[in-house]
Task: structure prediction
Amino acid sequence: MRHAVYAGSFDPVTNGHLWMIEQGEQLFDKLTVAIGINSDKRYSFSLEKRLSMLRASLAHLPSVDVVDFENQFLVNYAKSIGADYIIRGIRSAS
Result:
C-alpha cells in the first residue's frame, strides 16, 4: 500500500491545501493529513477548529485521515505511521 503524509499548520485551510490533498488522494492508497503543532507559534484558529475545518472539507475523500502531531520531525512522524512518502507544496513559483 502506498501511504503518504501531507503536513502543515492549516491556519486556515486554503484552496491550495485542498488541491494538494485532492491530488495526493489520487496518487496514493492512503493519505494522512497531519496538523503539526508548534508551541512557539501563535495560531488564528484553535487546533480543534483546524481539525474540524479539515475534516469537514475532506469528508468526500474516504482514504484521507486528518490527525495532529507534536514534537517530532515530519520524517520521524511519517515513519511512525508507516508512510513512505511526504507530499510538499510550493509556496511561490519564483
In short: Residues 15-27 form the longest helix (13 residues). The two ends are 35 Å apart (CA to CA). The chain has three helices and four strands. The mean pLDDT is 94.
